[in-house]
Amino acid sequence: MAKPKPAPLPAGCEVGGYRIVRFLASGGSSLVYQATTAAGAAVLLKEYLPAALMHRPPGQFEPLVRPGKVGRLRQGLHAFLDSARNLAVLQHPALATVIDCVHAHETVYLVSPYLEGQTLQSHIVASRLQSPRGGACLSEAAVISIGLDLLQALAVVHDAGLLHLDIKPSNLLITLEGALVLLDFDAAQPWAELQVAKPPGPRTRPAFTPGFSAPEAMANESSQGPWTDLYAVGACLYACMLGHPPPDCLARAQSDSVPASLASAAAHYSTALQSAVLRSMALGTGARLQEVQALEAALVQAAQSRPTDTRLH
To answer: What is 117-305's CATH number, 1.20.58.1370, 2.60.40.1180, 1.10.510.10, 2.30.30.60?
Structure first.
């Protein structure tokens, strides 16, 4: 049975020099707020508060540790801070990185720039509603542009020795200026640490999203690498094209409908783009594109294969 979610802090609450404006969302291990600095600049606060380990009744500021969870809480907090340290070294306009870390109210808060816009997931849903039945969701040019922007950000992550491991449309923000930003590094792990398979726990924090998680990620295998993130990138491009997520890898292993689904949209998307998506979503790690540069090259080839418009939908 799922534990009740901790109550968020109220608007106006001070957290280490930041003032909370409003509660935005909650996930498995954190609560997210919009806040302001003393100078009035907007920031994002992510509060470490896993519902399985901690609880906070409405009206209180300090959370309560659930009975018998102190050890796991310390491990989880250590991992949360590891994530902050990993993110602090990443510098790219398309990465939502950490700019500060605050200890307050018996927990920890990560501070990031506040960005306005909509998620790629919301954009796909809106575009799908505007598309004729059986038509393309986003234009080929838009799909390729999204892919190339995402890969530029992902290259920085991989060059730092990290894997994101939770790439999906809801973790991609399209800003008001039209820029793509990769969000939510809660599941990110150093690639070297994933070379030895281990059971899920507070230090590994595996994130499984049906349709976007690669087979080796679902199984928490040591074969994870840059190609694991590329599977998720390909799945995002598939969603941009078809307007819905691909089937999860377990269903694909029984009967793979992805090639036929992409072929059904052949009137809207080039063979080169379909091939790039299929090669990045191969179920076997050996058959999959192995590095960011390989998928970038495939998308550039697709962009050159036929003229397309540049509209997002």
So the answer is: 1.10.510.10
